[in-house]
Design goal:
It is a single chain. By secondary structure, the protein is an all-alpha fold. The chain contains 17 helices and no strands.
Amino acid sequence: MSDQSSLAMAAKAKAMYGKHLKSDDYTELLRKKTVQEIAGYLKNETAFKSVLQGINEFAIHRGHLEMLIRQTFYLDFLELIRYGQSNKDHFYEYGVLMIEMKQILMTIRLLSETDKTNQIAQLPIFANRMISFDVEKLIKVNTFDELLMVLKNTPYYNLLKPLKPRSVLDIDYANFEVVLKSYYYKRVYEIIDKEFTGKDKQDIRDLFDTQIELENITKIYRLKKYYNASPIEIKKVLNPTYKRIQKKVLDEWIDTKDAQAFLLAVNQNAYDIPTDIKEFQYIEYQTDAIMFDLNKRLMRFSTNPNIILVSYLSLLEIEIRNIIDIIEGIRYKVENDKIAKLLIY
């Protein structure tokens, strides 16, 4: 990437992030009583006005609003990589790989469902031209064989074919997630090794290493607390990446500690995750909050456009999730203070 395009992408991402939701915006959104009021505020007072332009906020359906909000992720991704795409720079492919992985996993999770509304709402139609398969065909997939046909000419075909279940009732979703995420991170690190050098390479590796380690912590805690999984079962689903916790130490914790003791060890030795049940939300909230703070810091201080791209998209993904949580909370008449506890900002 040329110095000029680097500066352009970094400046564009920082400017875009500066227009996104602030604390006052969340306060206003939490005061709204209907989905239509939320749509009106987002359309008229926030950066989401571009994707919501032309809607009738007084009549919009919840599902349609959520679909448009989710499309912001793909639109912003495409907007930013216009500044950095070149014959020499291919790091943007990390975002394409992430989109592909998430769409495949969602399809697998919903194979037994007849209602495809949620899947349609998260379809990356604006990014389809960059993806290695036709994502629109995924909403017509009802069997594993049909999924394999959509993925026929991609690396995912050979990854998933050996995992073909006897029926949709036999699908081991966790196994598919392990295989696809392992492939995703392997490809991301290959791109990093090819595209980066020096401090920038270390910074971007640190970012992904931290993300993987926090995903591993989440899996360990959930499997211990809710499924009473054995150490062997737990170790099978982990990505072998270690940042703040050495493998030997992590293995010992998995072998000897229950869920609460494991969390306490993480808190004392690696990450500031609350162990007091009164402060503890759910494990994903705690790990997402750590990544949010890390990405927010990188957005502010990093000058590397690709690091800024990763951070921007990570922060945007959390913001979109916040908005969806508010919409769903209002739909089910959840108390404001309970909705607020779900939000990360």
